Amino acid sequence: MxxxxxxxxxxxxxxxxxxxxxxxxxxxxxxxxxxxxxxEFAAAGVQAxxxxxxxxxxxxxxxxxxxxxxxxxxxxxxAPLLAPGALWFDMNSVAPETKRAAAAAIDAAxxxxxxxxxxxxxxxxxxxxxxxxxxxxxxAGEAALKAAGFTGTRVVEGPVGAAxxxxxxxxxxxxxxxxLAAECAxxxxxxxxxxxxxxxxxxxxPGIDWPAxxxxxxxxxxxxxxxxxAEMEEVVKTLEALGVEPVMTRGTVMWQRAIGERGxxxxxxxxxxxxxxxSNDKEQAA
Length: 286
Description:
By secondary structure, the protein is α/β, with parallel strands linked by helices. It is about 55% helix and about 10% strand.
């Protein structure tokens, strides 16, 4: 089965290599970004296409891995370009309502939409990353992914939105812990009590290396904060649809976006990361 990627960032590159594939990423249309993106396609052994139409022509399976805020638009714009019966794997972190709207566009055009939730960082697991699939085409989708080399798939009973609901509600905790870690670490550094705070956390929650865990959280936010903020906006929608006031999640959106917007390259070590963020804050304040 010919596989096409729509979007070719970290997730697309991690999921390539299981079968021959081609793909399209809008960054190839931006002169300043084109060469770097083409190099990523080449390094992954994926044929870079000049348009979504070229990438999708004849493809039996499409892996859509764009940013959360572009997931619905990607489905709507690509739907008319799909081969009849093509499987559309929406692996984007968006609310169940967003996935159902995307499914309506794909299915109306003759495609087969598969709600696909990625439950871990794509690296280093790559094709072994845990994936949940739901909707009427989930079983067919799982068979196609396994044939392409994916080993961590599991079908979730229920309609489109069932898999993404698990992902979204889980992200309240996972991405929320990142935001709390950042808030705690920055405050501890400014108060000059980092070692004492980390030591106290270790005593209260033994088994967790709090400096290492906090360092990892800041690393993820510095690199992926903007993408995570877009995902958490979808989590806000999910919680509101469930009648749950997203008080903590709105704070998570703020922290993820604030740190991601800094555009800082993570330096080794927790102290260096906090210092870089704090220094950036002071520069902006000045």
